[in-house]
């Protein structure tokens, strides 16, 4: 009875936690945001207080206006200035809620940063200790584009150019309350083009036209020949699409709108409903807690949380543990016909459970030094990591000397199978490779930062990137990743596990691994993906030049096209070059110079992030790391 009650209680806690999480995590992500590194404030400083006051006043200010807010608060060095701008066609309540989301989210994303800026579809918020009112600023900014190409490009561009110029003049010359214009036109195929331009209304006619003119002139950089695109800057922004994306109803003067009374009632009803359910839930939980604690009175000093934790883990452990017999049947007694390959840690088989579920079974090489409980702990830990770019661990089997890991089955083999095969590599056109790179970034970012545990992979390489039916990448074999204490970023180990060529120098030489040693391996992987060459192996055997020296030599000499896999077509040169650039930044000898996965994600998602110039990467052939013998198959 007590156990059932406690189980129920546990579910209720989880449920309440979910409610709280969903209530507090209400803000959607920005389209883009930048923490401008122009100085930091300290926690509890006057600047922070001023910023908080200013931001909380931003939307509590109920005065109806034209979608532009400019405020400042504080004195001298602690003065904070903020500008909020809503898109011109957005209704006041939508505007307010968009700015409200921004003001909650932006300081969270840019903690202690004096200057920051964030953009949603419907609004922009920026703040700084500098004066920003009435000043035209064109950076930082970003581009977005519609993936589809326009047809009849020349005519399309002509119509688009005329439309944008017309809108620019209209917006720049509107009054100082709202500098905004939208309109549409049709190209030769009678396809509509919808355009929108906007300046912050604090700009002069000249500043607004200058800003918009520059933005329009950047369309070829941003979204050449695309059906839609946006150029977005702090002081102005433009957008065009082949579909109607703005509210075309003429803008009514805000003075003439009376606030809809219905909305308020509705929301207060919902509030009441939520409050009532929370109160009921709290009462039930309190009651259950009482019963639960009461029934455990005989065991004093037990921390309720610990009990739940144990309970939880034991339950997980039970559901994750498979019988050896089951696995034997599933893999047809580990038959050679079922063998998928030999991984670093043992042989991998394909199997099918009696439920019909297809699995991958990794039978670990015997004699690994790990104890049973250590093994179980690791499995429990890894099974908790779930991300669409990670191969999912479904369970384990531990019987006698047998240690087996059961994974989801990923149908399409691994990246190296395609990438390094002269025929199959043509199936990986650039768009696909780029998506694979992005997926690996997401998976690693999750391992490094977003999961509850900080996991360092330590053996990232092309054969550890599996591809599913849609060629989405899934990182596998993070089994040797170790749990790091949260504030620990680096660990010394005498067990070096990894693969020659992918290992960062500090790891290969001193056994020091960190998220930055994974970044190094990622850099190698990106260079392999862009060049189609293996980091160690068949490359330029006669000259003994390794991948890094080869890439670096061509980079330095400006012959970057030599690096690019000849089976890739020419259209995406810029994107490929940018990836090579990022790859080089990841393989810098000094780990401090290597970007984090979060920065890499940003570099890939926005072209407005400028990349530092890479220095000469580590040279492995130089000798230092060559003398160390490294085993690929130890744990
Ligand atoms: C803003 O803060 C930075 C760094 O603290 C400082 O260098 C700069 O002078 C400040 N600007 C103004 C206008 O106070
Ligand atoms: C502000 O803090 C960030 C992170 O804490 C740091 O990277 C940056 O260098 C600091 N900027 C200045 C100007 O001190
Ligand atoms: C910030 O100030 C408040 C009171 O002014 C104080 O209670 C709190 O401990 C301070 N926090 C830090 C981190 O200094
Ligand atoms: C906050 O807004 C209210 C109402 O608009 C105004 O009276 C008050 O002065 C503002 N406070 C600050 C610090 O700007
Ligand atoms: C805000 O904008 C108005 C004009 O729209 C201007 O008169 C006022 O000085 C600005 N306030 C601040 C604090 O910059
Ligand atoms: C602003 O956002 C906060 C936090 O998400 C929320 O509690 C508050 O009700 C919102 N205010 C308005 C006016 O929407
Ligand atoms: C757009 O055109 C480029 C060549 O200019 C082509 O490579 C690409 O596949 C096209 N994209 C779409 C979505 O049609
Ligand atoms: C398109 O433009 C025409 C004339 O310029 C206008 O009458 C029509 O309402 C516009 N349509 C939209 C959806 O903006």
From TrEMBL:
It catalyses: L-seryl-[protein] + ATP = O-phospho-L-seryl-[protein] + ADP + H(+); L-threonyl-[protein] + ATP = O-phospho-L-threonyl-[protein] + ADP + H(+). Coiled coil: none annotated. The chain crosses the membrane at residues 272-294. One of its GO terms (cellular component) is plasma membrane. Residues 29-132, 138-245 form the Gnk2-homologous domain. It is found in: Membrane. It comes from the Eukaryota. It is a single-pass membrane protein. It holds the Pfam family Stress-antifung. One of its GO terms (molecular function) is protein serine/threonine kinase activity. Gene3D superfamilies: Gnk2 domain, C-X8-C-X2-C motif, Phosphorylase Kinase, domain 1, Transferase(Phosphotransferase) domain 1. GO terms for biological process: defense response to bacterium; response to oxidative stress. Keywords: ATP-binding, Glycoprotein, Kinase, Membrane, Nucleotide-binding, Phosphoprotein, Receptor, Repeat, Serine/threonine-protein kinase, Signal, Transferase, Transmembrane, Transmembrane helix. ATP binds at residue 362. Residues 334-608 form the Protein kinase domain. Residues 1-26 form the signal peptide. PANTHER family: CYSTEINE-RICH RECEPTOR-LIKE PROTEIN KINASE 5, RECEPTOR-LIKE SERINE/THREONINE-PROTEIN KINASE SD1-8. This is Cysteine-rich receptor-kinase-like protein.
């Amino acid at each position: 009875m007590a156990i059932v009650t406690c189980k129920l209680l546990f579910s209720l806690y989880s449920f309440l936690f979910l409610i709280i999480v969903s209530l507090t995590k209400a803000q959607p992500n920005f389209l883009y945001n930048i923490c401008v590194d122009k100085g930091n404030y300290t926690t509890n400083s006057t600047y922070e207080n001023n910023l908080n006051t200013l931001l909380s006043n931003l939307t509590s200010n109920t005065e109806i206006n034209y979608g532009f807010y400019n405020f400042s608060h504080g004195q001298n060095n602690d003065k904070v200035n903020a500008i909020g701008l809503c898109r011109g066609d957005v209704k006041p309540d939508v505007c307010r809620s968009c700015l409200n989301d921004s003001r909650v989210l932006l300081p969270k994303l840019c903690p202690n940063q004096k200057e920051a800026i964030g953009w949603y579809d419907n609004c922009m918020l920026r703040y700084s200790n500098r004066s920003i009112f009435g000043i035209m600023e064109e950076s930082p900014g970003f581009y977005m584009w519609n993936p589809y190409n326009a047809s009849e490009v020349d005519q399309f561009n002509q119509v688009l150019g005329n439309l944008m110029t017309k809108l620019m003049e209209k917006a720049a010359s509107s009054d100082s309350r709202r500098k905004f214009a939208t309109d549409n036109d049709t190209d030769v195929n009678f396809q509509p083009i919808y355009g929108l331009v906007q300046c912050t209304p604090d700009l002069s006619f000249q500043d607004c036209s200058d800003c918009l003119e520059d933005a329009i002139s950047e369309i070829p950089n941003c979204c050449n020949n695309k059906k839609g695109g946006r150029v977005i800057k702090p002081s102005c922004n433009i957008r065009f699409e082949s579909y109607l994306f703005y509210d075309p109803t003429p803008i009514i003067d805000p003075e003439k709108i009376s606030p809809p009374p219905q909305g308020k009632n509705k929301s207060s009803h919902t509030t009441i409903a939520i409050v009532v359910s929370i109160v009921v839930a709290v009462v039930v939980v309190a009651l259950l807690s009482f019963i639960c604690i009461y029934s455990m009175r005989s065991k004093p000093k037990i921390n309720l949380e610990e009990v739940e934790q144990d309970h939880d883990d034991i339950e997980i452990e039970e559901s994750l543990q498979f019988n050896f017999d089951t696995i034997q049947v599933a893999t047809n007694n580990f038959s050679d016909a079922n063998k998928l390959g030999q991984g670093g840690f043992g042989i991998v088989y394909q199997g099918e459970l009696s439920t019909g579920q297809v699995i991958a079974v990794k039978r670990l090489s015997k004699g690994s030094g790990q104890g049973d409980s250590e093994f179980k702990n690791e499995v429990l830990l890894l099974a908790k990591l779930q991300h669409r770019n990670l191969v999912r661990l479904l369970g384990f089997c531990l019987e006698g000397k047998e240690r087996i890991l059961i994974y989801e089955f990923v149908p399409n083999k691994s990246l190296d199978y395609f990438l390094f095969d002269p025929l199959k590599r043509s199936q990986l056109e650039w768009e696909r490779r780029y998506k694979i790179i992005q997926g690996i970034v997401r998976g690693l970012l999750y391992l490094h930062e977003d999961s509850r545990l900080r996991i360092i992979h330590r053996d990232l390489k092309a054969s550890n990137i599996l591809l599913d039916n849609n060629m989405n990448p899934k990182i596998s074999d993070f089994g040797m990743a170790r749990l790091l204490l949260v504030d620990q970023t680096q660990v010394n180990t005498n067990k070096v596990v990894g693969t020659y060529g992918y290992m960062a120098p500090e790891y290969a030489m001193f056994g020091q691994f960190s998220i930055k040693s994974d970044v190094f391996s990622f850099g190698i992987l990106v260079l392999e993906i862009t060049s189609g060459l293996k980091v160690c192996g068949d490359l330029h055997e006669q000259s003994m030049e390794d991948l890094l020296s080869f890439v670096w030599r061509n980079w330095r000499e400006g012959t970057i096209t030599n690096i690019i896999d000849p089976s890739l077509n020419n259209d995406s040169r810029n994107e490929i070059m940018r990836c090579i650039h990022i790859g080089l930044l990841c393989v810098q000898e000094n780990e401090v110079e290597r970007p984090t996965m979060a920065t890499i994600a940003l570099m890939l998602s926005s072209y407005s992030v400028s990349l530092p110039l890479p220095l000469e990467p580590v040279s492995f052939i130089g000798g230092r790391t060559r003398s160390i013998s490294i085993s690929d198959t130890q744990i």
